[in-house]
Amino acid sequence: xxxxxxxxxxxxxxxxxxxxxxxxxxxxxxxxxxxxxxxxxxxxxxxxxxxxxxxxxxxxxxxxxxxxxxxxxxxxxxxxxxxxxxxxxxxxxxxxxxxxxxxxxxxxxxxxxxxxxxxxxxxxxxxxxxxxxxxxxxxxxxxxxxxxxxxxxxxxxxxxxxxxxxxxxxxxxxxxxxxxxxxxxxxxxxxxxxxxxxxxxxxxxxxxxxxxxxxxxxxxxxxxxxxxxxxxx
Length: 233
Hints:
Largest sheet: none
Low-confidence stretches: 217-230
Order of helices and strands: HHHHHHH
Distance between the termini: 35 Å
Shape: elongated
Strand content: under 5%
């Protein structure tokens, strides 16, 4: 049997079971935006005192951590590798950050100055997020903006923490704020599209229709090895 004949054989005998899910990044990006904005404004010096860790750790752990980990599992189900990777790594970071500040709030830990271990956290996150930024350029300009600002912020934070340079830390905090705002916009765009059944806010989709007022056209196809499965969100 030829390759084309084998493909036709399996396609004609495949049974399709669709289990659609809502776009996981609606939850993931809203959780990320909320946690990142709350923490970044503290890092930027907008607010903060000795009681701040008591308020930061639960919000970071649950809004940024738990929400993104849940989004990761559904992004995996939707076969969205980019969302799985980015929500997963940053969800894990926010859980770790929340635990760190829980220990600070309980008086079990005092953060060092400069905070070299935290600096290396951001170095690792920056490297992974830059990879995600490159991948996002082939998919969604809005999401690419989120990740580019986030990767740049993590880079600045890493340098600032390792070298103990406050200007770098402040620059990183402002880039985190910018990333949170863009994430809020992209999540809102996804939410409105889901609710109205058409594009309300453009996100700069690289492939497909993403013009305000238009319906998103996504055809269910039969690519080799994936009968009836639509990949992504």
